[in-house]
Amino acid sequence: MKAAILFFALCVPALADLAAGQRAYDSRDYATALSELLPLAKQGDALAQGLLGAMYDQGQAVPQDHREAVRWFRLAAEQGNAFAQFNLGVAYHDGQGVPQDYKEAVRWFRLAAEQGNALAQFNLAVMYRKGQGVQLEDTEAAKWCRLAADQGDPDAQAGLGTMYYAGQGVPQDYREAMRWLRLAGLQGNAVAQSMLGAIYEEGQDIAPDYKEALRWLRLAAAQENSVAQRAARLHVGLMYYQGQGVQQDYKEAMRWYDLAADEGDADAQLNLGIMYEKGQGVLQDDKEAAKWYRLAVEQGNAAAQINLGAMYVSGQGVPQDYIQAHVWFNLAGAGGNAAGIKCRDLVAGQMTPAQIAEAQRLAREWKPRAGSAR
After folding, report:
1. pLDDT computed for residue 5 by the predictor
2. At what angle do helices 266-278 and 302-314 cross, to 10 degrees?
3. Which pLDDT does position 310 carry in this prediction?
4. d(CA 141, CA 144)
5. Phi, psi of 97 (to 5 degrees)
6. CB-side neighbour CA atoms (13 Å) of 56
7. Are 265 and 227 in contact, with CB atoms under 8 Å apart?
8. 114: Cβ contacts below 8 Å, ≥ 6 apart
9. SS3 per residue for the chain
10. How many CA atoms lie within 13 A of 276 on its CB side?
11. Domain segments of the chain: what residues?
12. pLDDT for the residue 374
């Protein structure tokens, strides 16, 4: 959930102490802010109460105390302060200082959103997208997302672009998707940058433009957003592997795959396994290939399951083991992979009924592990 950023520049303080407190808060002089704002907050000033709540929430000049933050946020929110209402919604959403309650989070987000608070509008859109505290409703999500996006909120712009791309809550429109994604990407939104890179790479409703794809993907890859960064690093690796927009370079591809794989990206782990198995950009190493395939199969990657199964059949990088081979082929086939079914049936011809029963038991008991990294 989007963190609170409490700037009250639009508020016009009536008291000199309040103005001094706000200036101190905005300049991160929290000790001065506390001395100026606390008396005003106790007197019932909503702006001072909201800022004091933020200071308790973040542990600024006071010990971090989410319950105390909620107390001050509530006092300000009940007076109609939109920023406090938004932050109270965040507290209920995250279960910080109060028991988690999505319906109560929606109530406070809505009150702030109806006053035009862009952060609340975007978070209300997210609640509708996920069906948290409200019935899942993409059309309503798109409405609130657009209101926040029109105010320049980059996360909302990225969200609206994603909805246009997928045709969720709005008619599918790749050009409109790109317009919103570009606005978000220019503000540094990593999700938008990663999506723009993928769109330019794949050529959705436009001619592929690998140089433009690489530009956006590199921007996303440098960010700290783990999901977008990981996806961008994988795509940059693919472009170096295939020589799209850059000269083909297996070593550079491996470098980008390695970055994504270390973050737990299963496709990057699969690709590293393939490169070690084939000796592309690195000395051929079956044991290293099997290691990367195993990390990918633990997340349910069907291609890696087939490749690891094949290594168990041949004893390549792992001890020969038809039971393990059957397990991984069977799991790939259970996910709808036709090659997995074919390979499972072929290896079953080399197994005893007891071995097949054991392999089936192991497959039934197997559970994927999300985001496995080395």
Report:
1. 40
2. 30
3. 97
4. 5
5. 85, -15
6. 25
7. no
8. none
9. CCCCCCCCCCCCCCCHHHHHHHHHHHCCCHHHHHHHHHHHHHCCCHHHHHHHHHHHHHCCCCCCCHHHHHHHHHHHHCCCCHHHHHHHHHHHHHCCCCCCCHHHHHHHHHHHHCCCCHHHHHHHHHHHHHCCCCCCCHHHHHHHHHHHHHCCCHHHHHHHHHHHHHCCCCCCCHHHHHHHHHHHHHCCCHHHHHHHHHHHHHCCCCCCCHHHHHHHHHHHHCCCCHHHHHHHHHHHHHHHHHCCCCCCCHHHHHHHHHHHHHCCCHHHHHHHHHHHHHCCCCCCCHHHHHHHHHHHHCCCCHHHHHHHHHHHHHCCCCCCCHHHHHHHHHHHHHCCCHHHHHHHHHHHCCCCHHHHHHHHHHHHHCCCCCCCCC
10. 23
11. 15-115, 121-187
12. 55
Domains 15-115 and 121-187 share a fold: yes
Terminal Cα distance for the chain, rounded: 28
State which CATH number among 3.40.50.410, 1.25.40.10, 3.40.50.1260, 3.90.1150.10 fits the domain covering 15-115.
1.25.40.10
Residue range 121-187, CATH number: 1.25.40.10
Structure tokens at 29: 């002089």
Distance CA 250, CA 308 (A): 22
- Residue 369 has what pLDDT? 81
Locate 210 and state its tokens.
Answer: 């690998």
Tokens of 212: 């433009």
pLDDT beneath 50, residues of the chain: 4-16
